[in-house]
From TrEMBL:
GO terms for cellular component: plasma membrane. It holds the Pfam family LrgA. This is CidA/LrgA family protein. It is found in: Cell membrane. It comes from the Bacteria. The lineage of its organism: Bacteria, Pseudomonadati, Pseudomonadota, Alphaproteobacteria, Rhodobacterales.
Length: 117
């Protein structure tokens, strides 16, 4: 289990290193997750210990939202000043997501020759 957790942290560290050394504006942990995915593809499997660690982390996922909530509370003044822009961005992005999802579904349904509802 320690080796699997170490592997996760090493992938995150490698992602951070790549992002910072190449000057990419992208989250390092996401790059690390991609590296982990490529490693699992190369190995052909995830492995029992890695699956156990992933299940444990997912079981406590709600704890990972605490830092984000603290950040929101710390920036409440800024949010209060820009509430309209934030609300507009949320509404527009939600609508765009719905439209893109519908268009993607319809395109995939056409490609697979299934009737569209």
């Amino acid at each position: 289990m320690i080796q699997a957790l170490t592997l996760l942290f090493l992938c995150q560290l490698a992602g951070e290193f790549l992002v910072r050394s190449l000057g990419i504006v992208f989250p390092g942990p996401v790059v690390g997750m991609g590296l982990l995915f490529l490693g699992m593809l190369a190995a052909g499997r995830a492995g029992g210990p890695l699956e156990k660690v992933a299940d444990t982390i997912l079981g406590h996922l709600s704890l990972l939202f605490v830092p984000a909530s603290v950040g929101v509370v710390q920036q409440i003044g800024l949010i209060r000043e820009n509430w309209f822009a934030i609300a507009a961005a949320l509404v527009v992005s939600t609508l765009l997501t719905l439209v893109v999802t519908v268009l993607t579904f319809r395109a995939v349904a056409r490609l697979t020759a299934r009737p569209v509802l």
